[in-house]
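Quick question, first post here. What does this chain look like in 3D?
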Amino acid sequence: MDLFEKLMTDRGPLGKHSSIAHGYFAFPKLEGEIAPRMKFRGKEVLTWSLNNYIGLANHPDIRKADAEGAIKYGLGYPMGSRMMSGNSSLIEEFESQLAQFTGKEDAMVVNFGYQAMSSMIDALVDRHDVIVYDSESHACIVDGVRLHQGKRFVFPHNDLANLRKQLERATKLVTESNGAILVITEGVFGMAGDMGRLKEIVDLKKEFNFRLLIDDAHGFGAMGATGAGAAEAQGVQADIDIYFSTFAKSMGSIGGFIASNENVINYLRYNTRSQIYAKTLPMAFVVGNMKRLELLRTRPELRENLWKVVNALQSGLKKKGFNLGVTESPVTPVFLSGTEAEAAQMIIDLRENYGIFCSIVIYPVVPKDVMMLRLIPTADHTLADVELTINAFAAIAEKLKAGAYSGSLSNISV
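> Answer (accepted):
Ran it through. Tokens below.
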């Protein structure tokens, strides 16, 4: 079979409905200034789909810093990879600030979070080592695990009893191979919004010899007393061996960082292929991200306002009888029962008639006949936004129950 013909006959679970989904359910275009209200297909919508937890993406101080950074450095400087010709004192200063903020000895700024996580896992382990990871880990972790040429064991999501069994298996293997064990989980799981059981995992270090890597993309900036993340919220920040986050969530930017002890970071600088063989993060982004970190540290009212909105939204939805699953974070999933066709009709109604834009998640991300509406509250939302949304959700839930969204997926037109 011709390769291109094969691609057209097997578009994958997410691409099979691309003919009706593209531009509306998938790859939609939100236009205008980054804010709770933006334009979708020319109409204003109240949007709950922006990873901008504490409202920094379009903060005036941030816009000023971004603009000044671009004027001073352009988007080309520094040229080349960090190792060859792209290092700078400013990046090193930023790394020191990140290390201090997360309570680690050193940090390493990376250009893209997804690539860095996958590449970091590849750099940390060899074929004699064993990886043990949570079954609901983000795709960047899964892709990194796939690169591993040794054994890897997965434990059911947040199942500590099973994790113990996998650690027992891993310990036996590494004893025979003279290898080591790396446990990987997330600080906050981005779909369900629950936290990794970091405290309990750390406690297992008393019985097993392993190092712990967490991806805290959704926890950094939003969780913990100072915003240092999910581990800080659980009181175990000092016990996280390798801390990773992106700048794409609470900081509303691009790039990311790894924080650990000095020797590990120095090793990763010389062995993380996605950073060695790629252009460094442009200086304009470094300047803007340094300002973001400053506001994250010095403006606790931004995080406080986020949680005011989160608590109002989640408590209000629960009072209306909605199932929010096990979320412990700003991530707000709303679980409903229905077919793919009902999910599509419902989201069209929500956007076109109620002026609310949020993401819809269906199988295979969630089980069949389950639909999940995923809301991301931000510090920029208001309590009026919350009230409008809760009322709209109550209305569409009644319609769903009454069968108003029944029909065939093939008959849907957007």
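The radius of gyration is 22 Å.
The chain has a mean pLDDT of 94.
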